[in-house]
Amino acid sequence: MKLSWCSIISMLTILLLTGCDQAATSGVPSALASVSPVDSPVQTFAPKPFDNGVLPTNNTSTSTPIKEPIGFEIGSPKEEAVVSDEKKQTKKSVIKPIYSVGKGQVAITIDDGPTKYTEELLKVLKEQNIHVTFFFIGQNAAAFPQSVTEAVYEGHEIGYHSDTHPHMSQMTYDAQENEFNSGLNKLIKFDKHPVTLFRPPYGAYNNDTKLVTEEHLMQMVLWNEDPKDWATTDPSKIVKSVLAQVQSGSIIVMHDHPSTIAALPDIIKGIRKKGYTLVTVPH
Ligand SMILES: [Zn+2]
């Protein structure tokens, strides 16, 4: 009996130890697994526009692996098919989105701010003696009011870029209107001039988006040059990409994040060297 108890105790000990080992080893990969997406290039950029505690309220679609950064304008602007909805408006909007500026002109537009980087961005723009067009997100304006105030004070053009950065073309008319109003209310109080320019997130819109824009007596602004500044942390690559594409009339879409800010002095100098005049988007 004594021997048997001993063997039982030994076996239990072995089982316990093995169990612990398994728990310890299985703990490592799971910890790594939860860390590795953050280290991947895509995920590094994903939270940038919202990484200051300002999370999109409808950001529930990110449970699947993220292939592309959230919040940045990706690819060419396009009119997407409207989702079928009984509340869909039948009226046809007459708005024609703006894709370009005048001959010999180039407009730099900065989306998704303000962020914790905007103060630095404004400093760089001031040093380069340039005004840009910002497309601010409503909830970010509420989170960084000082940056909006400063951008207005410095004479930059303030455009609107939704409240929470959703795919508006996938929303009903009513939801689009609510989204539009809630963010705009957070932004208009900063500027004594009316905010008249709207850029739909991802450049995705439909007739309802145009109708909502039109009802607010605003213009829809897209772009014709996308250097994909969100896809790299290397400022020199952003400079190269912008200057390789820039031409008369370019509206360049860029974003409020560190590598773009670092790239801007050379971008601005390069555009001026090509003989183009830097302007804000006319309204
Ligand atoms: Zn955006």
Summarize the structure.
The chain is of the alpha/beta class. It contains nine helices and nine strands.
CATH architecture of one domain: Alpha-Beta Barrel
Low-pLDDT parts are: 5-70, 80-84
- Summed over residues and divided by their number, the pLDDT gives a mean of 78
Class from secondary-structure proportions: alpha/beta
The value of Rg in angstroms is 25 Å
Our measurement of the CA-to-CA distance between the termini, rounded to an integer number of angstroms, reads 94 Å
> Number of helical runs?
9
Biggest pleated-sheet summary: 5 strands, parallel
Beta-strand percentage range? 5-15%
CATH class of one domain: Alpha Beta
- CATH fold name of one domain: TIM Barrel
- Provide the list of bound ligands, each named once: zinc ion
CATH superfamily of one domain: Glycoside hydrolase/deacetylase
User: How many distinct beta strands?
Assistant: 9
Order of helices and strands: HHEEHEHHEHEEHEHEHE
Shape: globular
State the helicity in percent bands: 40-55%
Reconstruct the topology from this structure.
Blueprint: H1 2-39, H2 41-45, E1 78-79, E2 105-111, H3 118-127, E3 133-136, H4 138-143, H5 145-153, E4 157-160, H6 173-187, E5 197-198, E6 204-205, H7 207-215, E7 219-220, H8 235-245, E8 251-255, H9 258-273, E9 277-279
Parallel strand pairs: 1-6, 2-3, 2-8, 2-9, 3-4, 5-7
Helix pairs in contact: 3-9, 6-7, 8-9
Bound molecules: zinc ion.
GO molecular function, one term: hydrolase activity
Pfam family, one: Polysacc_deac_1
InterPro entries: Glyco_hydro/deAcase_b/a-brl (IPR011330), NODB_dom (IPR002509), Polysacc_deacetylase_ArnD (IPR050248)
